[in-house]
Write a structure and sequence with these properties.
The chain is 31% helix and 27% strand. It has 236 residues and is of the alpha/beta class. The chain has a single domain, classed as Rossmann fold (3-Layer(aba) Sandwich). It has a 5-stranded mixed β-barrel, surrounded by 4 helices. The radius of gyration is 16 Å and the shape is globular. The two termini are 24 Å apart.
């Protein structure tokens, strides 16, 4: 079952995979939230684990940074390893005044400046959206857990260091809640393969206020988002 980027066997992955960008966050989730977690992939240091959460089999694997990277890993998981649901658990930059540091943003849709969709030859503009079942379940769980969350558009940027410093402002003007770099690619891949996807992001920094969390905080303290994703996973 090995692919160019995943060296695993059939049934090594659960039907639902949590997907942080950072391999160290994948390791953190496996070691602190899953029972009997087993390393099932470590190609290029992109760690994938499978274990159980409240008795339900769940996997976690990193996506790396950017749409091309998550496009590769999500495609291979969906196409070759029987994965049905991928829940991105990542960080994002707040773009609206009501979205505060450490708030959770659920990506109902994902705007992007990427040309990823051009491969599909659509002759128009695709609107990448989350799977409704995952999103509605996540909203219910967020309410149950009493979390501070927002639902709306993410802006999936193809660049972190952009020559135009105002690249995000137009998307903020149109109501995008936060900027990150992967959700649109995940949503498009899921749509093409008739699978399910949702991006859950914790606001790690803010474009308006300049507030920011540290790399260590991003790796280890976004536990509300992780718990929320796992609670969704066991309902699928």
């Amino acid at each position: 079952m090995a692919t160019p980027h995943i060296n695993a066997k059939e049934n090594d992955f659960a039907k639902t995979v949590l997907m942080p960008g950072d391999p160290l966050r994948a390791k953190f989730i496996a070691e602190n939230f899953l029972e009997n977690a087993t390393l099932v992939n470590n190609v290029r240091g992109v760690q994938g684990y499978t274990g159980t959460y409240k008795g339900k089999r769940v996997s976690v694997m990193a996506s790396g940074m950017g749409i091309p990277s998550i496009g590769i890993y999500s495609y291979e998981l969906y196409s070759f390893f029987g994965v049905e649901n991928i829940i991105r658990v990542g960080s994002a930059g707040g773009m609206q005044p009501e979205v505060k540091i450490r708030d959770i943003v659920l990506g109902m849709g994902a705007c992007t400046n990427s040309s990823f969709a051009s491969q599909y030859g659509l002759g128009g503009t695709l609107a990448p959206i989350a799977s409704y079942k995952l999103l509605s379940t996540c909203v219910d769980k967020a309410k149950e857990l009493g979390l501070c969350y927002h639902v709306g558009n993410l802006f999936s940027s193809d660049t972190f260091y952009n020559d135009n410093p105002n690249v995000s402002s137009g998307f903020a003007k149109m109501g995008a809640l936060a900027v990150e770099m992967e959700a649109a690619g995940l949503y498009m891949t899921a749509a093409r393969l008739r699978k399910n996807a949702l991006a859950i992001c914790t606001v790690s920094d803010h474009l308006l206020t300049g507030e920011a969390t540290s790399a260590e905080e991003r790796e280890k303290t976004f536990t509300d988002m992780i718990t929320l994703a796992l609670e969704v996973a066991i309902e699928l």
